[in-house]
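Table 4 source record.
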Amino acid sequence: MTDTESYLLIRFEGDINSVTRSRRFARVSKLILLVRVYQKCTNGVCTSEARLDGKTALVTGGTAGMGLEIAKDLARRGARVIIACPFEQEGHTAEADKIRNPK
């Protein structure tokens, strides 16, 4: 085998490896994309309607944002909700009334 034939053989094997790697990369990319789409569609959505009468829930950060929404949902389903927040004034805001009387 001449040096040229050896070079062409190595070059050809390298091309096959790069094609295999690019196909593998494409498959992994598709899988990651599907997982991310699934997470976006299902992330943070609680569809449970289970009653929580007689249960106590402790919610940290329940005066705003996601914590507030969680506290509202738990109260709507009948749980006794305790909100833990770092500032007493935050706990006495009008938002707390929304939790006590969810609509």
